[in-house]
Amino acid sequence: MSKSSRTESNGNKKSKRKSAAGPIAFFLSLFIVALGTIQLVSTFHTYALNLAELNGLKREEASLVAKKQELENNIKRWNDKAYVTAQARERLGFVFPDEQAVQVLHPEAVTGTDAQEEDSSTNQSTTKKVLPWYSELAYSFKKADEPVTDKSSSKNDSADSSSQKNQQDSQNNGQNTTGEGTQQ
Q: Does the pLDDT at position 176 exceed 70?
């Protein structure tokens, strides 16, 4: 073999080696870039989740701080004797010893609103209004002082009125057994 043929054969071998190393290097670099991209996307995803959680915790902290401030203001209000007096008058109906308590039986006469409008709005709400015990007591005294209706009408009217009284009694007994608004 001559020198030139050796060079050609060596050149073919080197070119074959270069061509075989090219695809391997390409796929290896492609694999490394893919791993880096996956790692980068995973890092950004974790960052976004942590940032969202941090913002949620900041909002929760702000609401808790506002609630704490409101509760502290309530405590300060209850330490004020004028506020306690006003609440006792409003909620419990307390009066000073020399004062006379006045209870308005028909507030629509004072406020100017129709009772029918109030009835329709209260019928729409499903919550049942429970009166304080002292209001229940005053209502019981008023009911006890009402005169009994005349029974001089016909038997049908008396039967209707007795059935209505039985229904009212059963409703009252149902309310008393539940304990709503009454003191046992």
A: no
